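Run: sequence + pyridoxal-5'-phosphate -> complex structure.
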Amino acid sequence: MDPWLRFRQDIRCTEDLTYFNVGTMGPMPIPIAERLLNLWDEWNTQGPGDPARYEAWHDRVEETRRTLARVLALSDDRLLTLKQNVSAALLFVLAQIRLAPGSHLITSDEEHPALLAPLMDLARRGHPVHVIRFSAEDMLEQIRVILQGHSVGLIALSHVSHMTGRVVRAAELGRLARDHGVPLLLDGAQALAHVPLAEAVSAADFYIVNGQKWSLAPAGCAALVLAPGAVERLDLRWRGPGRGWHTQYPQNWEGGWDWVDPAQFESGTQPWPLWAVWKDALDYLEVFGWEQLFEHQHRMARDLAAALAIVKGVELAATPDQGTATVAIRLSGWAPEALQPALRSRGVVVRALGAPVRGIRLTVGAYNNEEDIRRAVDAVRDLAANGTLPS
Ligand SMILES: Cc1ncc(COP(=O)(O)O)c(C=O)c1O
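>> structure
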């Protein structure tokens, strides 16, 4: 069977919906959803607190860590710590980053509230925030000018914009940040299984991914990658007991426990089946081949953008021109907040975007097909004739 057709048949919501919102939440393929339920059942029926079996859950999580390390092409000197979501990983870094009093921060105009919220907190603590234009050609130049004029404590922005799918020139940005001795945080929430990301991971001091979007894992899966020296940039307060069981009281309270383990940032009992099944989701995708997967998604997204572009009243706000699978449009006469539910009433699932795009975003998975494109374009064409705003 055609592998893409098999993929589609594994995605249940494609039966009833034209699902163009993997950028918010990826649907789990049937084998992954079944595996998750089985793991949960196993955990429960085998006696969830049985010390004889508990170690096996830690081992499964280590398999996920190893799989992620391979997919992200991590060098051995990078630490990968699991988190529940990108928001928690962002808070982990931004609430603990060592900043000189009054030092400035750099971010962009296309960031998710999960990054904006902790940045606002830092701004309230006396760290002015500079907002560069993410999609501008001179994006790096804007950053260079700020770095030359101010003492900057952190650059924190998306690797892939959740609004436009635009991809940052990570290697150059990494060099620029390093040349100025400024740590770089890249929010890769939109990157994993969407675009190649090894270069960006190695350019950043802090790189963050989640599992629930293109990598089709359940919500509850995310990871923070720390470059060598990145831990020292944090004033660590969120350090837990890590893996295993420490029966010994510390002899030296100030010194803490004298071991380093990425799990020490994972504090406490976790929903192990969620983290274990992330490996299975990555294995499922890897069978297609990452290059083939990216190419297939990208081709669908290009076809979608081309078909939408010729609908009267449509303006393309973002095209998948960097190998991505994200399209954004504006429709004359329609506010995005009204267009999203109007499309949903026709079975098409998309996401409304605020400024600077002020449109709707369609994110494409490799399970989407020509039929989905036709249905989405028909729905948009239909609505184009019935705008709710004066155009
Ligand atoms: C760029 C970006 N950052 C952060 C987030 C928040 O991710 P999470 O729900 O895993 O915290 C998202 C989710 O849509 C996102 O797209």
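>> summary
The domain at 49-286 is CATH 3.40.640.10 (Aspartate Aminotransferase; domain 2). The two ends are 47 Å apart (CA to CA).
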